[in-house]
């Protein structure tokens, strides 16, 4: 070993090398392990993003807002965009010379409204009238009538992706007015078809 090589090796400052390695290690740890305050900020941002996801999905049309109700021990629903209001069945006046599914008319704040019994229209099992009966007022394109519900469950959102076209048990008249069946087996009726059906419109009229 010559003198030049000895002086070159002696010139290496191992303490400085160790200090730099320690500084580099600390920098890496800061990247992969943020400070507690930073961790809280990241978690809050993630929570806000997750909270926005259902709203964004609904805005994108991935959810249907429906009024769910009971008919003959089964759950049915119609989209809220067709529902004007829901009110108790009161002061019903039967009409002569009308089909069986036309239950009668009610005076709704000065407006005469026909009430249809979908159980009879769909040929479902009958149930007697009770205090739980409600009238769901449907409206679209100038057409307006009420449908009788055995009880109203409430308003909820149904994931569009979970709606299936039909069930083997849904046949006949009901299938013609079917929009789909939810994952919870709620039958979603196409209120637009009901309101536009000429058979219902014609049959509602009473000849003078």
Keywords:
208 residues; alpha+beta; five-stranded mixed beta sheet; 10 strands; rod-shaped; disordered C terminus
Outline of the structure:
This protein has 208 residues and is of the alpha+beta class.
Question: In words, what does this structure look like?
Answer:
35% of the residues lie in helices and 31% in strands. The strands form 2 sheets. It has a 5-stranded mixed beta sheet with strand order 8-1-2-10-9. The protein has a 5-stranded mixed beta sheet with strand order 3-6-7-5-4. Residues 202-208 have low confidence and may be disordered. The protein is rod-shaped, with a radius of gyration of 34 Å. The protein is of the alpha+beta class and 208 residues long. A hairpin with a 2-residue loop joins strand 1 (63-71) and strand 2 (74-79).
Structural class: alpha+beta
In helices, the fraction of residues equals 25-40%
Radius of gyration: 34 Å
The total of helices stands at 7
Mean pLDDT: 77
Would you list the SSEs in sequence order as H and E?
HHHEEEEEHEEEHEEHH
Binned strand content: 25-35%
Number of strands: 10
Q: What distance separates the N and C termini?
A: 126 Å
